[in-house]
Each structure stands twice: as C-alpha cells, then as structure tokens.
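OP here, attaching both records as promised.
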Amino acid sequence: MQSIFVKEKEMAQEYHYRIDYLLHGAYKTLYVRAPGMTNAEAWHWASVDAGVGQIPKYRSDPVSKLSKPQAEKHGIANVEWTQS
C-alpha cells in the first residue's frame, strides 16, 4: 500500500509540456509529461517524435540523446517548449 502512495506522490510532481518544432519545414507539436524540461530535453523529445531519437525500453535504462546539431542534421529546427 505504501508503494502506491509513493508512486502517486512522484506522479504529482510531474508537469505537462508542449513542444513545438519544425521537421523539414513542417510544423509539429507534441506533449510530454516530465518532472522538468530544459532546451536539451525538448530537442531530445522532438527528435524522438520525429523518429530519429531513442527512448529506453525501461525507465532505468540509459539512453543516448541527440544534441541540437545532430537533430538539425535530421531536419529538426526551431524547437520551443512551454509548460501547459
């Protein structure tokens, strides 16, 4: 019972973010739930949405994230995010 309470408490600290970006000139939007957001995280999630970034199979697994220059090589540009 205590583990359920801890899990609910952790989820309460997560926020919803809207990420807008251009993929080969086409406007794209996605929403992500996360405990925090940075520009690097926004670029990572845009690359995942575009199909070039990776997400881990399990939360605890490490994942290599694409940098802004790497994402730009795949046609991703103008990544902006805001809390929604």
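Record two, same layout:
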Amino acid sequence: MRRAACRAHSWAIGCAKNKVAALAEVGDAAAAAALGRETSDRSARVLGDAHILTISLRAGPALDLSVLGADHPHSRNILERHRPYRDFEPEPQPS
C-alpha cells in the first residue's frame, strides 16, 4: 500500500486503522494505542476532523468493552462484527 499510495491517502489511513485493530486483537495494547494516536492525528491533518476515519479512530478507545459493557449497542456491533460505515470514503450525501 505504501508504494501504491502515500501515507496521507485515505486508503493508507484505513489500512493503519485496521492494523490498530489487529495489534489489539493479538494483545499488543501498547503498540495499538501508539499507532492509533499517530493515525488519528494523521487522519485529522489530512482528511479533517469530520471524516469518518478520523471520527472512528478517535472513538475507538471510547468503545472499550469494559467501560460500555457487553449489552451496549456499540459493543454488540463490535462483537457481531457489524460495520455501520464504509472504511475509506465518507457516505454519499443526498443532493
């Protein structure tokens, strides 16, 4: 991906977001947190504060299951692997 698109491309930011999740999944919380912070900052600089990738990167830490609980709608979405948004581009807006 780095050869095909620069680190500032939305797809590269989306891939970094996925790597954050993969690091957390294998138990490397420190690396996941560090990459998540760096990627969130990069996304805000490049894509803006209102872009879905920036919002989801900032919201990720807030979705800690131990805080929300397993019955919270956001927790259920995570546990059931529902993805309520598209990863790489904002949703089309009605004309």
